[in-house]
Write a structure and sequence with these properties.
By secondary structure, the protein is an alpha/beta fold. The protein is built from five helices and four strands, in the order H-E-H-E-H-H-E-E-H. A four-stranded parallel sheet has the order 3-2-1-4.
Length: about 130
């Protein structure tokens, strides 16, 4: 009985590896700020279909209109990524269609210089109902 989960797990891993190598893996990036958006553009350059997730509807609308809200990222970079299949959404139900998810949310330091993990925790709680093996 203990080998069954290992077999299923290794099959899932092998399938994911094949999708990554073929650039057919659907990648979701949560948090489209100063870390998430540049990472999104890098994955798009590597020919992955990327879905960016953000709770800020204005960011989502700006990106889907080929705009940029980060000074060092020109709108032409967003337009190029969109032509390659990038889209942005605030609909976390779409997480279920992703093969891999990368979380890029802030972890600001508190007054004791310890990271505030509340953004990660709330993101994980929002994702949980939509995850699959």
């Amino acid at each position: 009985m203990s080998s069954t989960p290992k077999v299923a797990s290794s099959t899932l891993a092998a399938t994911l590896q094949q999708k990554i190598e073929a650039r057919t893996a659907r990648v979701g990036i949560i948090g489209l700020g100063y870390v998430g958006l540049p990472l999104t553009l890098l994955f798009a350059e590597e020919k992955f279909v990327i879905t960016g997730f953000d709770i800020d509807q204005k960011k989502v609308e700006t990106l889907n209109a080929n705009g940029s809200y980060i000074h060092r990222i020109p709108p032409t970079d967003i337009a190029t990524a969109r032509k390659r299949g990038f889209s942005a959404t605030s609909d976390f139900k779409q997480i279920g269609g992703m093969d891999a998810v990368i979380i890029c949310v802030p972890t600001p330091l508190n007054e004791n210089r310890e990271p505030d993990l509340s953004y990660i925790t709330s993101t994980a709680e929002a994702l949980a109902p939509h995850l699959r093996p």
